[in-house]
Structures are given as structure tokens and as C-alpha cells.
Amino acid sequence: MKPDYQNNLFIFIERLWLVGAIFAVGCCIYFLIQKDNDSALFFFGFFILASLLYILRKGQRKKQEAYLKNKENKK
Which of 1, 31, 68, 71 makes an SS bond possible with 39, Cβ 3.0 to 4.6 Å? Predict the structure, then answer.
């Protein structure tokens, strides 16, 4: 896989999890307003999961970028 393509893929997946987390917060707030606590709790759990995966993906992307930059400097 080409480094540019791989980096773009990491950025896409990272942003996808960020959008998922934002969506989950919106749904959680909506269901809290509607007094549906069970659904709000489900979306809160999804928010936690999406946030963790966003943070992990961001770390993975930064490590990959540092690795590629290091690899270019050694040439």
C-alpha cells in the first residue's frame, strides 16, 4: 500500500469515528430531552466507544507519519 494512500485512509477512518462520536452526542441529548433514558444510555456508550477509537486512530496515524518521516530522513 502506498504511504500517501495509507495516510489518507487513516485520516478518513479517524474522521469517521469523530463524526460518529458527534452523532452519538446529538442522539444522547435528543433522547435525554425526550425522557428516554435507555436510548440515551445506549448512545452514551456509543459515544464513549467512538471517542476511544478516534483517539486510538489519531495516535496510530501520528505514529505512522513519524515512522514515514523517519524513514525518508534515513534515505
Answer: 31
Q: Which amino acid, residue 14? A: E
Q: How far is CA 39 from CA 22, 26, 27, 49, 70, in A?
A: 16, 12, 9, 15, 46
The whole-angstrom separation of Cα 51 and Cα 59 is 12
Q: What would the pLDDT profile of 43-56 be if each residue is shown by its tens digit?
A: 999 999 999 999 99
The C-alpha atoms of residue 44 and residue 57 are separated, in whole angstroms, by: 20
DSSP state of 72: H
Which residue in the block uniquely carries the three cell numbers 500517501?
A: 4
* Predicted model pTM: 0.81
| DSSP secondary structure of 10-36 | HHHHHHHHHHHHHHHHHHHHHHHHTT-
Give the C-alpha separation, 55 to 62, whole Å: 11
